[in-house]
Design goal:
The chain is an alpha+beta fold. The chain contains one helix and four strands. The longest helix is centred in the N-terminal third of the chain and has 28 residues, at 3-30. The chain is globular.
Length: 93
């Protein structure tokens, strides 16, 4: 394969991959989400996790009860953790 053909093939494959990734992002943005408390790992919450924290990534412990993460709507309470299931309301840690 000559350099021109190889470059063109690489460009086409890259463009297709980018298009697929963007389409997947658009689809995910359309899915309803809900706050799920007590399911995130330390430092991986989506936003405000109670006193002493300010926003995303500030939870201090795994499965912190007042730290939430966005999950697909209807899945929160089915998420199992070592501390029980996810909750739609803040919990004690």
């Amino acid at each position: 394969m000559n350099k021109l053909t190889l470059s063109a093939t690489t460009l086409i494959v890259s463009s297709l991959a980018s298009g697929v990734a963007l389409a997947a992002q658009d689809h995910a943005a359309d899915q309803p989400m809900e706050k799920c408390y007590g399911v995130s790992l330390a430092g991986h919450n989506d936003c405000k996790a109670g006193p002493g924290t300010s926003c995303a990534g500030t939870s201090k412990m795994d499965y912190q009860g007042n730290a939430w993460t966005l999950v697909p709507e209807g899945t929160c309470t089915s998420i199992k953790t070592p501390n029980g299931h996810g909750s739609l309301k803040p919990m004690e840690s």
